[in-house]
Amino acid sequence: MPDSGLSPGQPSLPDPPVTPPPLPGPPTLPFPPAGAAGAGTAAAPAGVADIPVPVTPEPGWIPRGPSGLGTASLSLARHPEGALEAPAPTAPAEGPAIPGLYHHPVAEPDPVRVEEVSLRIKAWAVDEVQAFPPEWEDQFDGFSVGRYMVACHPDAPTVDHLMAATRLMVAENAVDDCYCEDHGGSPIGLGSRLLLAHTALDPLHTTAEYAPDWAESLHSDAPRRAYRSAMEYFVELATPSQSDRYRHDMARLHLGYLAEAAWAETEHVPEVWEYLAMRQFNNFRPCPTITDTVGGYELPADLHASPAMQRVIALAGNATTIVNDLYSYTKEQRSPGLHLNLPVVIAEREGLSEQDAYLKAVEVHNDLMRTFEAEAAELAAACPVPTVLRFLKGVAAWVDGNHYWHRTNTYRYSLPSFW
Ligand SMILES: CC(C)=CCC/C(C)=C(\C)COP(=O)(O)OP(=O)(O)O
Ligand SMILES: [Mg+2]
Asked: Is it the case that residue 22 has pLDDT exceeding 50?
């Protein structure tokens, strides 16, 4: 079991079965040829849906109560009887897709898995890391993180694997909300907060005199508690190289947050290309790049580091992140001050109307998606190694699941009326 380097403090997970699902037979291109589908809905890439998903039944799971001094008063989201409640199961999710947005529809995520992950993630958030105060419970439920992660990782062999991704997603959002954005965040002092929180992922190695203060600091706010615990679970499942990949991607993310904050502080509107550069770092990338860990296999480090794979990952991450800019546009228009996103920056820097800028941003997204698919297909043909093929399929599945979640999260997002 790889060592996290973090002080233990949480009950250890049972050893999850990590037998990966059988790999596809003869290598096939996981994507349709570039341009095969027009704008808008496209057929799901052949192959992604073909990976079997063995569902390993897990022993009955009982939510743990809070433990440790003083945690009783931190118990949130409880009914008087003390039972945690997962967000109410919903009918198949609705929500319109952005007209003209190139995307692949996905099958409705397995409701049994969604229910189980939703229950377990809320217990973790409430009992283990106290990730949110009671008044944010509706927002936590409305985020639908269980549905998000089940949709993005259709090949996860067990719910434990899904939980690793789900905890990290909650922790990443706790940092974004509490340090950067609308739940007490601010550009002022952000660098210091992010660096100290980053040590929950990439531990401080120091002398015996100073180490205890650092270890204590990891329990001092919700973002650090969430990062520390989520990472501790993740390294139990990941190889050292997968953990290091994740740390690197998180450092990239934190660098992106800092550039966004620097512009917000001076109310600077960057050039479009500068915005795209910032958004390549302030990006979903750390989520699709754990697809192999969550799938129970490993893309070897040298194959992950190859320039062609790095380009495919960056293109996929950029497409997923511009999807966020488009679906969160009205939410961000309503927020105080000028919230940068691709349509806003195009409108400001290129002198377009809000509508024309939005439609141009849709085209930028579609270009990124098509280039991602074309280059992933080229890489699959040039390097038909089973782990490469499966990783590419996993990234494509994450891209599609991410679109599904944004489209269907009508609690959080709504479309502008440009059509
Ligand atoms: C989950 C993760 C790694 C997120 C990092 C970057 C991030 C917060 C996004 C890509 C989402 O963008 P945004 O902050 O604009 O989110 P909302 O629009 O508020 O949903
Ligand atoms: Mg957004």
From this structure: no
